Input
Amino acid sequence: MTNEILQNLIMAMQRRIAAMPKRLRLFTTEYSESQSLPRTLMLSGVRGCGKTTFLLHHSQDKRMIYFSADNPKLINEPLYDLVSDIFMRGYEGVIIDEVHFAANWSFHLKALSDDFPDKNIWVSDSSSLVLRNGGGDLSRRFVSIKMPMLSFREFLYLETGEKYPIYTLGDNHLPVSPDATLLNLFQQYRAHGTRPFYQEGDFELRYMGILDKVIDKDIPFFVPSVNDNNLRVMRAIIGSLANASIPRLQVKSLCTDWCVGTDKLYQLIFVMEHIELLRVVRYPNDNKARSTGAKILFSDPCAYSVLQANIGTEREAYIACCFKQAGYDVYAVKDETKGDFRVQRQGVEFTVEVAGKSKVPKSADYLLRDNTDYTAGNAIPLWLIGMMW
Output
């Protein structure tokens, strides 16, 4: 690596730090209040959730260099040689974004971790599949941290500067009073608030750009021999789900219409799920490899606003998203008269129903209502569920 390239990396990193907003999402700042980052770290999370900002924020008291592995000036340089050169110049750590773009990245990271045991190596990528698929036994050497989507609680902080406590389901004490301003902000959050870049404007265009990059660049990395027809199939899946009132896929029809084998289709759905483009909601104990579950939702509920999709399905996607981001497992309920989802975490299990304001309730443990402000018995307004993380 030449001195010119190093200076360019330093200046680019300084520009990124200077451009960071004054208010950072609470996941970033609260993490530093509770603990320091490990020496070797793999940070995953959907594109646009703030991973780079997180790592840059935590690097400011350290002498570290940031670069992205898809930088065209670095793409041909072996990762081990590049990082070891940085260490030899006296830097105490590196931040590597989009790590999967580096050739043989997992083996290089293993060697760097072993050969430089006193150096910080922080890497990020848009999917935990990267760490899972990486060779070189990275899971033992790198601590994995998952960055969730932006919560409504964090959205409120970014918009108002007010920091509210995390809500626990069933707690009768509300973290904030639901006045007209809060309820209006909640509608904005559902439309465009799950990723911090909404502050930059043009959310719909930026979201569609991310969608294109995930399909065209990320998914082919995990699925061998993806062709143009497969890319069109994935867009057809997204279009089908956006237009469907019942969020399911007809596998046979898709295979016939698009001339794709069932194995390939299930492979595409698997990766679309694990890269957090889709959320496959299964029944408990459904461990079949070839399964589309009970229903398929968009992982990011804002997709329904961007794609002008079904509002009833958006409610379910929002609730499934909130519980998953808060650390719960979410399953479908076989007997739909008893609720929409079965939710589990650390031995606690309950059913929830997602409903509009006037829907007749089922027999679920919790009724999660849209267009309401306060709790009433087991009925909880949707805005509160977005305060759980």
The longest strand covers residues 348-355. The mean pLDDT is 92.
